[in-house]
Write the structure tokens for this entry.
Amino acid sequence: MSDNCIFCGAPATQPITLKETFTAQPLLQPGNKACNRCTTYYNDPKYRRKNWYSTNGQDFNQIKDVLQFLQDMPPPPFVLYTTINWKKHGWILSVQNTILNHDKFILICDDQKIYFNRTFFNKLLTDLEPIWQKGVIKKFLTVGYPPAGIIRKYALTREECQLLESYKQHPLWHFIIAFKKRDKQQEESENKDE
Ligand SMILES: [Zn+2]
């Protein structure tokens, strides 16, 4: 049997028994041991239910505003995990993809790997802002060219509609929309619309 952690691949001594409900086997490496860090991550639900980063495997730093964090990150290396559905064991991908470079890295969101390129990320944020300011609700930001009624309602320009069309295929765009926040009042009226 391997003496490496089934989660991250680091040398490991302690045996681990997975629960029967565990469904992320395809993410694992063969073996039956885990390192201390990953044993903690496996057993504590906060590592799959929160957005967080850790610089040394001991510190747990919750991230309140993910997009803000991505614009102002601590010095690498660190492990970063983000989640929209709060229950998958995507942190396993995070420990396998330590961030070594601020500008280009594999961004983990749940069990999805998204290629992060800072230049492109900044462009997406910049392009989103004027559309966002018009109050377009989230579900019309990820479906491509908006329907005529929506274009009228939010006074979208042709150029803005074309951006929406071209970005709908980019996972990083979907990621940004998912984590973009409005103030409370706007959010409430948005929910009413749906
Ligand atoms: Zn490990």
Remarks:
- Residues 5, 7-8, 10, 34-35, 37-38, 95 surround zinc ion (CB under 6 Å).
- The mean pLDDT is 93.
- The first strand starts at residue 14 and ends at 15.
- Residues 114 and 170 are 9 Å apart (CA to CA).
